[in-house]
Structure formats: structure tokens, C-alpha cells
């Protein structure tokens, strides 16, 4: 993929997958980012740090990482000497992952190849040119919905999964067990919707009181989940599109751009404009009291 010239847009193709091209022009810390679906990220410029409770992953330009769904990380996107972070990412429809697994698991057994399921993340330090070609072809298949038939698009995304198996790794669609995880997937399907607690409770076949009690046992609330889903959605739009902030606010469920900006700052510690390069003062710290320069 050629850096610096790709249109900033998030593309999604039903039943197949989603892809995006990320550009960021300020180094920032994103805390507790939840990756809801399995995802492949390729760093094109700059570098990337992901930290979980278990380990830290550091990626340079030209390297990639495959992340299992339902994982949470603190993330820092580091700028290149040219003052730019750039990456692309690709995710698969869960049915496509399941279909691929059912076919190639049998092939792995027959060939005695030991393929391990990715439970957290797998860094890919050396990406063969043919593997990168497959990634680019998969992203093109998601973008070109008129020119590339569904069958070919599915084949291209499955080819990337096959490349992962050559790295002795595979993705799985593990059932989401926590209520908060199930609700994240539900809310993520329409972040800008005016969600009401009774409707959400009905979706998960619970009374509203039972819903709130179960969420309290998982140390969260419905309003906290909804805000986090909306802010994560907005973050993706800020990184991967050129949409005005007022439009992003509306698509994230906020009619007031100023109210959206307050929510965004509360969640991440900096305003939405920071994602696109509006820099803070050198001595300014986040609302959590941590300067991103001191995190590494």
C-alpha cells in the first residue's frame, strides 16, 4: 500500500469484512481501547505500542499485529520523523472466520500442522511481499463492491487467514460470555442510535433491573458502556475519515458538537481535534494526570 495518498475512509462489506486507512498527526495515549472484533493492523509509518495487563507489543513501520476480538489495550501511535503515524487495518465477518476454520482445521489435522488459536495478539515481524499483496487485495475487495463479486471478495479475505495459518496461527470466533461484551457488540451495531434501557433489556431477554444488576457485577453501567462504544466509534472516524467533527458527533449519537467534545475529552483526556494534529501545549497533561510522553 502506498502511504500518504490513500483516501481516508472506512469501508465495510456485509458478510465479508471492514477495512480502514488510519492517519494521525499527534502522538497520543488511548487508554483501555477495546478491540471488539478480530483485526489485522499493518503499520505503514511511525510505530505502535499496545499494552495489556499481560504484555507489551511494539511495532515498527512494515510490521503488523493480529488481535483477537474482545481484548483491551492501552495504545500509543508514535509519529515518524516526518511527523505522521499511518496504518491500515482489516477485520473479518465472524461467519467468514468460522467458515475458514471449518475447512482448514481439517486440512491442518490431515497434514499434522500445529496451528494455535490467537488468544490475545500475534505480532508479525516479517511480512512476505506476497502476504502484503494478499492484504492489499483483501482491502481492495472490501472497497470495490461494484467491481469485485462477493465470492471473490470472500476468497481474498480467506487468503489472508490462510497466510496466518502459515505462521501457525488462526483466528476464532469465541463466544462472548460477559453481558458487557454482548452489549458492546449490540451497541456497536448502531452507535448513533438513541438507545433506551428498556429496549436494550428486551434485546438480551432481561428485565431492566436484572440488566443493571448484572452490569454492576461486572463493574460497569449501561451509560458507561454506551459512551465508550460511541467514543471508540468516533475515534475511528477521526482517524480514518475527513468528516467534519460536527458530523462525527451526530453519527456518534450527539446533536451537540460541544457536548460530544466534552464527552470525548472525558473519555480520552484530549479533545477530538488532537487526533488530526491540533497540538496541546508542551506541558499540558491529560485529565488523568498522565502526559503521553511519560507513558513509554
Overview of the structural elements:
The chain has 296 residues and is of the alpha+beta class. The chain folds into two domains: 10-170, Jelly Rolls (Sandwich); 179-278, Homeodomain-like (Arc Repressor Mutant, subunit A), CATH 1.10.10. The chain contains nine helices and twelve strands. The protein has a six-stranded antiparallel beta sheet. α2 packs antiparallel against α3 (150-166) and α4 (179-188) crosses α7 (222-240). The chain starts with 9 loop residues before the first strand and ends in a 28-residue tail after the last helix. Pfam families: ExsA_N, HTH_18.
Question: What keywords describe this structure?
Answer:
296 residues; alpha+beta; Jelly Rolls; Arc Repressor Mutant, subunit A; six-stranded antiparallel sheet; four-stranded antiparallel sheet; disordered N terminus; disordered C terminus
Give me the side-by-side strand order of the main sheet.
1-2-9-4-7-11
The first-level CATH class name of the largest domain: Mainly Beta
Radius of gyration: 19 Å
The poorly predicted ranges are: 2-6, 280-296
Describe the sheet with the most strands: 6 strands, antiparallel
Q: Helix and strand succession?
A: EEEEEEEEEHEEHHEHHHHHH
CATH architectural arrangement of the largest domain? Sandwich
CATH topology grouping of the largest domain: Jelly Rolls
Number of strands: 12
Form type = globular
Overall average residue pLDDT: 87
Please identify the structural class as seen in this structure: alpha+beta
Distance between the termini: 29 Å
Q: What count of helical segments does DSSP give? A: 9
How many domains would you count in the coordinates? 2
> Helical proportion?
25-40%
Q: What amount of the residues lies in strands? A: 15-25%
Protein name: Helix-turn-helix domain-containing protein
Pfam family, one: ExsA_N
Keywords: DNA-binding, Transcription, Transcription regulation
GO molecular function, one term: DNA-binding transcription factor activity
